[in-house]
Amino acid sequence: MKKEKQMSFPELAEWALDYTLKAGATDCRVSLSKRRFIEINYRDRKPDTLKEALTRNLNLGVYLNNKYANQATPDFRQASLEAFITELIESARIMEEDPFRSLPNQEFYSGRSEADIQITDPGYEQLSPEERHSIVQKAENACLEKGGEKVISVEAGEYDEKYEEYVKTSNGFEASSQGTVFQLGVSMYGQDEGDRRPNGYQYAIATHKNDLPSPEQVGKEAATRTFELFGAKKIPTERLPVIIENRVVEWILGFLLNPLSGRSIQQKRSCFADKKGEQVGSKLFTVIDDPFVPRGLGSRLYDNDGLPAKKRNLFTEGVLNDYMIDWYYSRKLECEPTSGSVTNIIIPPGERDVETIIKDLPKCLLITGFIGGNSNSTTGDFSIGIFGKFYEKGLFKQNVAEMNMADNHLNFWNKLIEVANDPWIYSNVRVPGLVFKDVVVSGI
Fold first, then answer.
1. Residues 317/388, Cβ–Cβ less than 8 Å
2. Which of these, 100, 142, 192, 268, is most buried using a 10 Å CB contact count?
3. Non-local CB neighbours of 435 within 8 Å, separated by 6+ positions
4. CATH no. for residue 154?
């Protein structure tokens, strides 16, 4: 039996587009991807999880006279793809018509940047299995040593991947990208008073291995984070300044960004639907979406629609400037598309560190973590569980847990009174600690 020739991504995409159009599609979009990932977890100084995989995927979107269907397959054999495409077109035929479903107009593809965003680590292929295991072992050992007799269990893990993507549409868009990702995390359970077993963690993510902190640093910090939960208890319900630590700001920013989506606005479920150009936060609240950060975890040159990535200010000194509107919802809303997703979120840092800020406040709660929570995109109301550290006159008083913070986005961001100088760089949300006044915290 003759072996089928393996086509390159550009060749396979061209073949798939051609076959799909000849089979009856009006337009189509094909995305080809390949990903290699390795995951290693240790528990009790022994390997607990060892995974390595190479995956590939062909995702095809079919447009057929205002009807649309989308599906993916890992099977690249031509005979299988022919059947896959035929079945997908038949699926599209039975879909309800949606006049807003289409590929973007060609003019929206132009203007793509050629910036070198440096999201691929050239040394990825040289990372050996022994090095990976050593990284995890060093992180776990550092946590165990720091935790001492208070350790119940420690889990440490390393994950890395290299991915490639090629995208082509029937109306002229073509692009490719590749990148690498490295993750390191440590989690510890500690023995507190009675039967309390607090769980603290530390993690870091980067596109380049050398941008991660040392394994020992991550392990020690996980133990420290766990100890900061020891003896944690409620404080009386009151209104006071709160500082949200840099690494957890992204949690509440995620709540804020949801109402900015085109979907929320079109479905009248956005508290910001009629607020563009208005002051919705304090003068210190500037939020930048920057896709060109070198080595940034969210850096890219084009978005999911193929629109060129652009740097934009979502908020400038508290004024709402822009929404997140993809091509589909731009047609429904009869407006220009921006992008339906964000890249690297940046809040410009201030001048002082968190420790200095704490010393100048008569009392404050440093929030180091969130638990659960919900946010109503329509009204802006949100409520979220919190834990952290309580200070009076600059001095630590107690660890805090089982508390809740509730507010409304249209009020909350106006309470921002200072931005710290410590942006968290191990995320696509690269923001510093934020200080808010007059926030009500209450016992759950």
1. no
2. 142
3. 241, 242, 243, 357, 364, 416, 417, 418, 419, 420
4. 3.30.2290.10
pTM of the shown model: 0.93
**Taking a C-beta distance cutoff of 8 angstroms, is the pair 24, 64 a contact?**
yes
* Residue 362 structure tokens: 């008569």
Residues 141 and 170 in one domain: yes
Is residue 322 domain-shared with residue 422, that is, in the same domain? yes
Pairing of strands 238-244, 199-206: unpaired
Range of the domain at 29: 9-37+53-109
* 243 shares a domain with 194: no
Looking at the structure, tell me whether residues 161 and 295 fall in a common domain.
no
Whether 296 and 361 map to the same domain: the answer is: yes
